[in-house]
Amino acid sequence: MTGVQHEKKGACILIVQISRQAVFALAAAIFFCFLAQSVDAAYKIVLKNGTEIIVEAYEKSGNHIRAEYDGGIIGISQSDVRSIQRVERSRKQAEMPTDPALGINPARKQRPPQQDAEQIRSDTAAAKRGMLQDRINEITIRIETLEKQKFQAEDEISRVRDRMSALQAEGKRKAVINGKDPLVRWKDFLLPEEYAWVNEKTIVIAELERNLKRFEDDLAPLSEDRAYYEKRLQEEQ
After folding, report:
1. What is the pLDDT of residues 137-153, one digit of tens each?
2. Which of 114, 143, 175 is the last residue of a domain?
3. Global pTM?
4. Cα angle: 175, vertex 177, 178; to 5 degrees
């Protein structure tokens, strides 16, 4: 009889221990479930003009990003985006109703001033126009620099050739007077410093002409690029 009582008592203790473990497991499951539901993932899109946009979700489609924002869908060009960061906020905060006095969701007070999708699209378009204008300005500076270098090269070539023509004419005149072939022997009748100058500037002109060709080759595509970006900017106006 005593043995039976001990067996029953041991079984009760085992059931109590199992029950406690089940309660703890259930409590842990409920806690983690609550924790998972209390945190909601969102994404912060940072534009190159400094604007920050908190969106519910996003996906990349070609060269654009489609994002859920304030119950709507907005499109952003990937070229306007600096970074996309995952952020977390409480679900209670994300679902907090709009404060009628403020006209905004208190959970979104840290968002940029632009609170609706239309304003975001407007800011994105403005940022795009700004980037296009910056690109046009950069190309214009490069074109102006090359054009200045091209003008200087052309001016130097012209001045060197003018003096060289004058020296050549004088050398030919003296060669004829001395009964020499003016086309072959004209340099022989130059002064030593003139002779050295002609030889030096012959090399300089060849280098300047190579630079001039390079400037012209570089200017052509730059002019086309500027016309392309100016057309895009006009389309964005």
Report:
1. 999 999 999 999 999 99
2. 114
3. 0.47
4. 65
